[in-house]
């Protein structure tokens, strides 16, 4: 986790300013984060692993707000850690929306 925190500090030096719309390069960095960091537990195709699947089908019925809360606060008693110290609310909302969209 310390390595991830260090890398995110390098990737998102202006994360506190993310209340404005995210730039396309910021979105690209978040996409990379989802694939690499989320994918390390949820599988590189998000079909499950240590963590449960996070495919659009598996997330059917979920909301951006609900997923944002899970991303930021984790799920106690599971391997899902809180990311609040590393991501802003805007970044977590973007990731949640990204996960709910059908991806190729």
CATH top level label: Mainly Alpha
Beta-strand proportion: under 5%
The geometry reads as globular
CATH-derived architecture:
Orthogonal Bundle
Radius of gyration: 13 Å
**Could you say which structural class the secondary elements and strand pairing correspond to?**
mainly alpha
pLDDT < 50 runs, ≥5 residues: 10-18
Please give the domain count.
1
- Element-by-element helix/strand order: HHHH
The biggest sheet amounts to: none
CATH topology call: Cytochrome Bc1 Complex, Chain D, domain 2
**Estimated helix fraction:** 40-55%
Mean pLDDT: 85
What's the helix count?
A: 4
State the separation between the terminal residues, measured CA to CA. Answer: 29 Å
Number of distinct beta strands: 0
3D structure, described in words:
The protein is mainly α. The chain has a single domain, classed as Cytochrome c-like domain (Cytochrome Bc1 Complex, Chain D, domain 2). Helix content is 49%, strand content 0%. It has helices at residues 2-11, 24-42, 64-73, 89-100. Helix 2 (24-42) packs across helix 4 (89-100). The chain is globular and about 30 Å long.
Sum up the structure in keywords.
104 residues; mainly alpha; Cytochrome Bc1 Complex, Chain D, domain 2; 4 helices; 49% helix
Structure summary:
Helices cover 49% and strands 0% of the residues. With 104 residues, it is mainly α.
Layout: helices, strands, pairs:
Blueprint: H1 2-11, H2 24-42, H3 64-73, H4 89-100
Helix pairs in contact: 2-4, 3-4
């Amino acid at each position: 986790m310390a390595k991830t925190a260090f890398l995110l500090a390098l990737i998102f030096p202006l994360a506190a300013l993310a209340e404005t719309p995210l730039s396309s390069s910021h979105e690209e960095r978040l996409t990379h984060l989802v694939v690499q960091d989320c994918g390390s537990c949820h599988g590189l195709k998000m079909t499950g692993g240590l963590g449960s699947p996070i495919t659009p089908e598996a997330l059917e019925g979920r909301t951006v707000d609900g997923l944002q809360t899970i991303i930021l606060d984790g799920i106690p008693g599971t391997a899902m850690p809180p990311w609040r110290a590393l991501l802003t609310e805007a970044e977590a909302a973007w990731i949640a929306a990204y996960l709910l969209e059908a991806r190729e």
